[in-house]
Amino acid sequence: MKSTILRTVLLAFSILGISLLHYLTPLNLHYLHDIFQRFYYLPIILAALWFGFRGGLLCSLTVSVVYAPHILFQWGGGLTLEMEKYLEIVMYNVVGGVTGLLAQRERARSSELQKTAQGLEESYNKLQTQSERIMTIEEQLRRAERLSTLGEMAAVLAHEIRNPLGSIRGTAEILRDDYQPGDPKHEFIEIQIKETERLNRVVEEFLRMARPQPTEMVRCSLREELETIVTLTTNDAKARKIKLSLEPPAGDLFVSADGEKLRQAFLNIVINALQATPEGGSVTIATRQADGNHEIRFSDSGPGIEASALARVFEPFFTTKPDGTGLGLAITKKIIEAHGGTLEVESQTGTGTTVIVRLPVI
User: Fold this and answer.
1) What is each CA distance from 22 to 35, 65, 72, in whole angstroms?
2) Number of domains in the chain
3) What is the pLDDT of residues 288-316, one digit of tens each?
4) Hey, which of 15, 36, 135, 290 has its CA 20 to 30 A from 354?
5) Nearest to 175, CA basis, from 183, 163, 186
6) Which domain holds residue 277?
7) 259-276 and 222-239 helices cross at what angle (nearest 10)?
8) Do 266 and 303 belong together in one domain?
9) pTM to 2 decimal places
10) Sign of the four-CA dihedral 326, 327, 333, 337
């Protein structure tokens, strides 16, 4: 709006100024009047470019009305003598109308091209979004297919492993009754029973990979859970001659979680880090708060993971270790996501690997 008013005022002043030059210049200076006549084309063309056909024509008519008295009263109004000046007025209107029409068409064409470009950009964005959705759906389908296979295998394992484990545990409990507490054999049988229970839990977790179970959430201290994990893995780290360190936060951090599952997830990550770190290396656990989440970073000084393998680390049964099952990170990711968190792996060949767990703050 302001620019329109400014342009209109500029045109008015230019027409007024050129007209004053005509009226105030003596008639004997013909060459100056010829020059001033041509000056009128400037506001006419500008009006046509700025305001289109109507603007150009209105400006040329205004110039005609202002210039006509100069011809009629100052030059005497001789039709034959001043025919050139009358024709100049006609040309003002022709130039104003034609220039305005061409400018208006060009403006309309530019607007159409802009709308077309905007439509193409929107179509491109929609296609890109749809492509991303298709890729996501394909990945979900592939994952569902793998989980379906996993479910079938879990059913077979449940039948082939859990029944013998039950028999082993029952036999061990019978044998335990023959020995008093404190007897070395009694302790060995207790270990056998505990290991049998542990194997049974492993099978149950394997089943949950394909058939998620409800999780009981309670208030858990991240500091305590991480300290427990460090305690459990310290002997393994010493045996491998690896420095395992925990950098706890200044204060305690609390999350809503199933403590046993959370420990299992952290334990899987730390064990993977220790197995990937060479002798003399280090594994560091650090915590901080970021963007409304507790962030736990498990960093090792191992050889890192190649880009091709990094994209598949969460796939069930994918592993880079000769004796690995490929289920550790897949189970860990499922546990973390069940707690409303995210799991991310950052790694480059030769620079080690960092596993980042983010859990929502209570």
Assistant:
1) 10, 14, 13
2) 3
3) 888 888 999 999 998 988 888 887 887 77
4) 135
5) 186
6) 218-360
7) 30
8) yes
9) 0.47
10) positive
